[in-house]
Amino acid sequence: MLNILAIETSSDACSLSLQYQDRTYTFHEVIPRRHTERLLIEIKKLLQEAGARLSDLDAIGVGCGPGSFTGIRLACSVAQGLAFSNDLKTIQVSSLEVLAHKIHSQFKPDQVISIVDARMNQLYLGKFSYRQSDRMDSHLSIVKIEDFTCEGLAQDVHFVGDGCGLVLEKIDRVSSKIHNNLPNAENLLGICLEKYEKGDVLEPEKLLPIYLSSEDQWKKI
Q1: What is d(CA 50, CA 42) in angstroms, rounded to the nearest whole number?
Q2: Which residue in 28, 42, 125, 128 has its CB near the most CB atoms, within 10 A?
Q3: CB–CB of 168/37 below 8 Å?
């Protein structure tokens, strides 16, 4: 059984999930502007609850954005430091995929569109197309709100993310399946387990935030 810690702080939620010895331990709390002071404390608490040490883990997975500049830099730097000091691998996952994974796991649609507020009148978009249980295709982009379009989407498309409300009039015309979720580390953990089994892991120094815009467009928390 794999032992993996998942860290997701790309939004207002500070979210952790730990799989250790066939059990899962979680922490998820919406705490805007408090990620820096809480993240290491909550990681320590989660490890203590599980009776685990960092050196017992196989890898640390991170929701690498796009999203909050401060949040994704924090998650990546903490994961790198912990992985370096304990000789662990890291796993990079887009936070847009984390959002889509939850919806696909729950409803099994052919297509999920993740929409996150990128500030500066823009949206981070992740388009994920599925066949059965496998992610077959994905595309990440940033668009101006006025340029967002629903053309070419599947009939059973689901929308997810805190940016849905910014284009609600457009997406409501094509689907009532709209979810205002924030990324959750439990879903990140599921992706990380799949990636680790496939050998899709990184040395800590190669773990980087996923940026889709210039620095002045990053959301600060």
Answers
A1: 12
A2: 128
A3: no
Give, in words, the CATH class of 95-179: alpha beta
**CA-to-CA distance for 212 and 76, rounded, in angstroms?**
16
The number of helices, as runs of H, and strands, as runs of E, in the chain is 5, 10
**Could you tell me the CATH superfamily of domain 4-94+183-217?**
ATPase, nucleotide binding domain (3.30.420.40)
Phi/psi at 211 (nearest 5 deg)?
Answer: -110, 135
Q: Residue 163: is its pLDDT beyond 90?
A: yes
pLDDT tens string 91-117: 999 999 999 999 999 999 999 999 999
Residue 212 clears pLDDT 60, i.e. is over it: yes
- Mean pLDDT calculated for residue range 69-93: 97
CA distance linking residue 98 with residue 52, whole number of Å:
25
